[in-house]
Design goal:
- The longest helix has 25 residues.
- It is built from 10 helices and 14 strands.
- With about 290 residues, the chain is an alpha/beta fold.
- α6 packs across α7 and α7 crosses α8.
- β5 and β6 form a beta hairpin.
- The strands form 4 sheets. Strands 3-2-1-4-7 form a 5-stranded mixed β-sheet. Strands 10-9-8-13-14 form a 5-stranded mixed β-sheet, with helices on one face. The chain has a two-stranded antiparallel sheet with strand order 5-6.
- It has 2 domains: about 120 residues, Nucleotidyltransferase, domain 5; about 150 residues, ATPase, nucleotide binding domain (Nucleotidyltransferase, domain 5).
Length: about 290
């Protein structure tokens, strides 16, 4: 094995930190740590991060890539979204100081899409979103991640879906953990009750699916990707919501061709997409 050819990829979010140690395309080791609380403090977040890094660290390490939620510019989180503490942490500086290794940062869904795109070489336009603590998104066009004019585009979770009196309702109010939290529920509990036959919980997942279909139709009417990938923690309830997503999507997409040909699929790397993509970022940094 060549000296210093190993890469660590980290996917760190509001509920967990996951990581992989890779040599080329081969995953040598995986590690995962849940924060154990819904809103981690700086201390808890860093404990989870360093736990995973320590589990994966090797003297032959070349670089570390990290995917984080929110808006990232110049290797700093400047718009933290649902994980507010990230805007107060210089993750790159902390890791480089502790491990004496080069660190690269990007948005977590952009890193996840890098990984998923390697499995879909025949597609030139791929849109991805993740359903979890919040909702993130990314767009792959002509073999590169699109970032918008200022490098911070595709925050799909902030898409306005409805208005309640003077309060605007975003997609995250309908398709992320917040949707269940406002009802005093955890997504996993609702999922289990739906599978056990609860009509109330089946209706919740139907509502989530229909709202997601509205968002995907909006995206398709705007940029018309060939394929849409859905990842994130809520994906485990795929059978409960995706039929309603696809039905609503087809009803609202203006172009009959796009409505018929656009594919909607589940992330193939599942929960490891972000970590694998972060490793790819570190392996071959992009501008």
């Amino acid at each position: 094995m060549k000296k210093n050819n190993l890469i660590i990829g980290i996917d760190a979010g509001g509920t967990k930190v996951r990581g992989v140690l890779m040599a080329g395309k081969k995953i040598l080791k995986r590690a995962e740590k849940l924060h154990g609380v819904p809103n981690p403090t700086k201390k808890i977040f860093l404990e989870s991060l360093f736990f995973v890094l320590n589990a994966l660290f090797s003297p032959k390490l070349k670089r570390v890539g990290i995917g984080l939620p929110g808006v990232i510019t110049k290797n700093r989180v400047v718009g933290a979204g649902n994980v507010k503490i990230l805007s107060r942490l210089d993750i790159k500086k902390l890791i480089e100081k502790k491990y004496k290794i080069k660190v690269l940062l990007d948005n977590d869904v952009k890193t996840a899409l890098r990984a998923e795109a390697t499995l879909l070489p025949k597609y030139s336009s791929i849109f991805m979103l993740t359903l979890g603590t919040g909702i993130g998104a990314a767009w792959w066009q002509n073999k590169q991640i699109m970032k918008g004019s200022f490098g911070t585009a595709y925050e799909l979770g902030q898409m306005i879906i409805d208005k309640k009196q003077k309060h605007f309702l975003e997609l995250e109010d309908f398709c992320a953990r917040k949707f269940f939290k406002t009802k005093g529920l955890a997504p996993l509990v609702s999922e289990q009750r739906a599978y056990l036959g609860s009509q109330t919980h089946k209706r919740l997942w139907k509502e989530l699916g229909e709202s997601l279909g509205i968002a995907l139709a909006n995206i398709t009417n705007l940029i018309e990707p060939e394929i849409i990938i859905i990842g994130g923690g809520l994906n485990h309830a795929w059978p409960l919501f995706i039929p309603y997503t696809k039905k609503t999507f087809k009803k609202l997409v203006l172009s009959p061709i796009a409505a018929r040909k656009t594919k909607i699929i589940k992330a193939k790397f599942d929960k490891w997409s972000g970590a694998i993509g972060a490793a790819l970022l570190a392996k071959k940094p992009r501008p």
